[in-house]
Amino acid sequence: MELYMDPKASPRDRAADLLGRMTLREKTGQLTQRLYGFACYERQGEEIVLSEEFRRETERYGGLGALYGLYRADPWSGKDFSTGLDGVLAPRARNQVQRYVLEHSRLGIPVLMTSECPHGHQGLDGYLLPVNLAVGASWAPKLLEEAAAVCGRQLRELGVDLALASALDILRDPRWGRSEECFGEDPLLASAFATAVVRGIRSQGVDVCVKHFCAQGETTGGVNASAARIGERELREIHLPAAKAAAAAGAAAFMAAYNEIDGVYCHANPWLLRDLLRGELGFEGLVVSDGVAIDQLDAVTGDRLASGALALEAGVDLGLWDTAFGRLEEAAARGLTSEARIDEAAGRVLELKFRRGLFEEPFVPESSCWQGYTPESHPQAKRLAEEGMTLLKNAGNLLPLDGTKPLRILLTGPGADDLYGQLGDYTPPVRPEAGVTFRQGLERWLERAGSPAELTFRTGCRRFAPSPELLAQAERAAREADVIVAVLGGSSSRFNGGTFQDNGALADQETASMDCGENVDAALLRLPGDQLELLRRLRGAGKPVATFLIQGRPYEMEEIDACSDALFCCFYPGLTGGEAAAKLLFGDLAPAGRLPVSLPDRAGQLPVYYNYKDSYQGMRYYDAPRPRYPFGWGLTYTRFAYALASAPEEGDLSLTFTVRNAGERIACAVPQLYLHRSQGAATSRVRALCAFSKTELAPGQEKALRLDIPRESLTQWDARGRTILPPGKIQWFLRDGGEDLLQGEFFVKGAE
């Protein structure tokens, strides 16, 4: 038996043996992921017909390295419930693809299946989560790990080998359309969630490709794929921790980012991909390109063959939709790269295939895979929606509303009855019965409770277009109401039109009804359309207004705040957002969210992230000195009493304290420990999160908690490019809900 066919041999040895038997063209084929998986088949009733494009590609290279997006369904792919792969057809189609590849591979090499899982699986009946920014607001990484495990189980049943998961981007400029894909503005918070998503999916036997590496959230002016204008210190302190955490959690692949850092594209940066990722972080898996990104290196090389060679030499192993990697055989013949480097990359692809057991078990059972993956059967997504909604303001304790009283409630706003508006970008078609809009959530709650309250619904305005008649209708209804609930915000939904680029990003904003999503960047952060005017008119009615904001990025808060008595930030809460909102509105649940990103008064303040460098005490705008709502802010329907037990010191880097629910409702405390270095080798950040916890307390209940300070949170990157622990004074602050509760200081002796 050939060594590569021996399951008792190590994956690395098997890969090396197989490489020695392959032609250069076959090796090149292992590095290509040129096909759009959703274009590889046509559904004819209950039959699947493989496309000629798929057949030609497989035969061209004598096999296929990886196939992206066989199950993807959305307006870009053109797949829906009539044309795409449902739970019955999906495993059948997967096996059909795999069988064809094996039959046309001289050495019997299976294909690696990759699939999008940015906030749940982007396929028909895929288990969907709130977007990352909404998940970040939950401050509940263990809950995300549980939810990611559900996604992983579904992906495993489909035969997905590599889940493409958004986990690394840090939100430093909310004008960026892809803000919703970030867990927030803080590296520690993002690291905790990156760890959770990798562990959760991996727990079900599916490997994870995390994206994007690196600093894609550090945009120039919020413009997608623009240069990250940062130095190495900012890269290491802000953008690298989540990548380090994902690697430690067992990520099998990293997707390189579109942007450049200091003039060098990430896809062409050997220092980033080899020295840092592989050398320092010890990562041994795949580096995957983003869609068509290698071809875009033509802007540097002016030559398609040179672009492929440049990315390969820099450290990219597997392409995505590009043509350049498909021509690496030609590039090697021209001396632009070498067969040894092709072997290095192909060896990693093959090793992953061996490690996953694809040579022994290339097929999956052809039973229905997606039945039962609902919020009811797997409530983790529902819980994330509930715990992520963040109460920003509650003047006069307007909320919760008393559903036992005969209140006249006006529900209005373009987000009140729009399911797709709750879901975010990278969303598949969903069945109407699968979700709960805000309108449905309130109606169902009132019916179940037998409430005497009367609910009236008026659209109020269109989300983007002028709508004077709808405004007038809502204004009249507002005068007759006792309380007004306004559901406002934008949308990342692709289901209202739009054309798309080769990489799936929006091509023309004019044809779509989106104000967020990939390539939907904004100079201003205002509510679109007539929504501010609607809010002004509602305010003018003289009735209390409770506003729910559904958004993929922060909005300018000055006028929204002024026109709202109570205010919730929901981001995109997912399928059950309306159910969660009703529970919070009427007090079945107490708000548990805390902001993962600072909310500005106006766009001219940006950047407003909390952890800026303390280089000059006068660093502020005189007319807008602070964000409206800072990172970590969040109110609830009770109050907590904190008491210090022991403070951190050089010999014991931990804080112990008690927290007691001093109110009358069950609620979650979210203690957050921040540090500020007063002395050191470089300028310090005003504050930096170093530890946090989340705990539920019944009325009157008290818990003793401990937060440990990681030693690395005390280190600095000095002027010589070394990570050191300088001596000096450290101030600490315990916060919850946006206010300092306990504080003190300690000294560290330092060490190099």
CATH architecture of the largest domain: Alpha-Beta Barrel
What class do helices, strands and sheet pairing give? Answer: alpha/beta
Number of strands: 27
Compute the number of helices. 19
Structural overview:
- The protein has 752 residues and is α/β, with parallel strands linked by helices.
- Helices cover 27% and strands 18% of the residues.
- The strands form eight sheets. The protein has a six-stranded parallel sheet with strand order 3-4-5-6-7-10.
- A hairpin with a 7-residue loop joins strand 17 (640-646) and strand 18.
- Helix 1 packs across helix 13 (339-355), helix 15 (438-449) crosses helix 19 (577-586) and helix 16 runs parallel beside helix 17.
What's this, in brief?
By secondary structure, this protein is of the alpha/beta class. 27% of the residues lie in helices and 18% in strands.
Element layout with pairings:
Blueprint: H1 11-19, H2 24-30, E1 41-44, E2 47-50, H3 52-61, E3 66-68, H4 89-103, E4 112-116, H5 132-136, H6 141-158, E5 162-166, H7 187-202, E6 207-213, H8 232-249, E7 253-256, E8 260-261, E9 264-265, H9 270-280, E10 286-288, H10 298-301, H11 304-314, H12 328-333, H13 339-355, H14 380-388, E11 390-394, E12 408-412, H15 438-449, E13 454-458, H16 468-480, E14 483-489, H17 531-540, E15 545-550, H18 558-562, E16 566-569, H19 577-586, E17 640-646, E18 654-661, E19 667-669, E20 672-677, E21 688-692, E22 695-697, E23 702-708, E24 716-717, E25 723-724, E26 728-736, E27 739-748
Parallel strand pairs: 3-4, 4-5, 5-6, 6-7, 7-10, 12-13, 12-14, 14-15, 15-16
Antiparallel strand pairs: 1-2, 8-9, 11-16, 17-18, 18-23, 19-22, 20-21, 20-26, 24-25, 26-27
